[in-house]
Amino acid sequence: MKMTFRWYPDAHAVDLDYIRQIPGVTGIVGELPKPVGAVWPLDEILSLKRRVEEHGLALEVIESVKVHEDIKLGLKSRDTYIAAYIETLQNLGKAGIKTVCYDFMPVFDWMRTETARRLPDGSTTLAYDPETISRTDPLQADFALCDWEAVYSHDELARMFTLYEEVGEKGLWKNLEYFLKAVVPEAEKAGVRMAMHPDDPCWPVFGLPRIITGEKNIDRLLAIVDSPFNALTLCSGSLGCSAENDLPRLVYKYASMDRIAFGHVRNIKRLPDGGFEESAHFSRAGSLDVVAIMKAYHDAGYQGFLRPDHGRMIWGERGGAGYGLYDRALGAMYLSGIWETLEKTQGIR
Ligand code: DNO
Q1: What CATH code is carried by the domain that includes residue 266?
Q2: Scanning 110, 124, 203, 219, which has its CA 20 to 30 A from the CA of 239?
Q3: Whose CA is nearest to atom 11 of ligand 1?
Q4: Whose CA is nearest to atom 1 of ligand 1?
Q5: 103 within ligand 1 shell (Cβ under 6 A)
Q6: Along the 349 residues of the chain, how does pLDDT read in single tens digits?
Q7: Best of 85, 110, 115 to mutate for ligand 1, by most ligand atoms within 8 A of CB?
């Protein structure tokens, strides 16, 4: 297992030198702030890599290369965007990047209704309230409610909602298959593992289809192209929104098959109304058994990348929702501590 940390090169950027001071973290999960669908030029990738390396860290994973909506919708223009995607993967491969995280969620990426819910200990966290979602019209929404980039105009959004109605779940699977069959063989040649991030939360939101939601569908995804280059970013918090997803079992199953290239490990607290809030990584703080999840990675002999996931805002820190330094650093230490314990107590009775 190689411990990494997500870093955004933007206004909320956490200082790379601070990340380097977190024991056990050696790698950065980075990205270029490019418009969706644009080719990432090799020189810009190389300069990002250099910037990270100048701080004593390695650029290990790219999170993420977003998939253009026309690909997910299966529009004619998709072939142009697929060609651009492949070119980006080739450039990443040339720069020595081995893993790319991506997702196939229509329109929105991860969705929350609050970015600063106060917890009893005074920290604030991200939360999802199903009632807020059910009374929100996404076309009229106050987008501050949702943590996604409001990159679309009202008219574009309305158009996409209509198109997705026609596409439905069935069409989305077909479009995913088309994408993977075109991209995975090229990713393989470029030496880059495609690591699909599950839908977050793992159910349809605002009536838009979502398909990477649990074991049956993950099996189906992996069968589309049966290759270690068609792999997963196994995100415990996203799949953990549903109690039906038994995380330690899923981690063990897919890691043993060598189909996890990247792991996001965090905890969430499922609430009785079907919503959830993001808790500290510590098992007792939420609904997931983080020790059992780490043990599953360990017992399956996991060699890939792992990162702590969203953090709460603690100690008065201000920063990008879920992506401050302090609580994620605590998460990294907690995960590394569990890992070290697993390593050192192997065989000890
Ligand atoms: C949220 C992240 C996601 C992830 C994308 C991958 O915190 O895990 O935004 O990066 O879904 O494309």
Answers
A1: 3.20.20.150
A2: 124
A3: 103
A4: 110
A5: yes
A6: 999 999 998 766 899 999 999 999 999 999 999 999 999 999 999 999 999 999 999 999 999 999 999 999 999 999 999 999 999 999 999 999 999 999 999 998 899 999 999 999 999 999 999 999 999 888 877 655 555 556 777 888 899 999 999 999 999 999 999 999 999 999 999 999 999 999 999 999 999 999 999 999 999 999 999 999 999 999 999 999 999 999 999 999 999 999 999 999 999 999 999 999 999 999 999 999 999 999 999 999 999 999 999 999 999 999 888 999 999 999 999 999 999 999 999 877 6
A7: 110
Bridge partners of residue 127, in order along the sequence:
114, 277
Question: Does ligand 1 come within 6 angstroms of the Cβ of 63?
Answer: yes
C-beta 199 within 6 A of ligand 1:
no
Is residue 84 a part of any domain in this protein? yes
pTM value is: 0.96
Ramachandran angles phi, psi of 244, nearest 5°: -70, -20
Q: Which domain holds residue 291?
A: 2-342
Does some domain include residue 113?
yes
With a 6 A CB cut-off, is 334 part of the ligand 1 pocket?
no
Considering only CA atoms, which residue is closest to atom 2 of ligand 1? 110
Would residue 347 count as lying in a domain? no
Cis peptide bond N-terminal to 64, omega within 30: yes
**Any atom of ligand 1 within 6 Å of the Cβ of 65:** no
Strands (E) across the chain are located at 2-6, 27-30, 58-63, 99-103, 114-118, 124-128, 193-197, 230-235, 260-265, 268-270, 276-278, 305-308
CB count in 10 Å sphere of residue 185 = 15
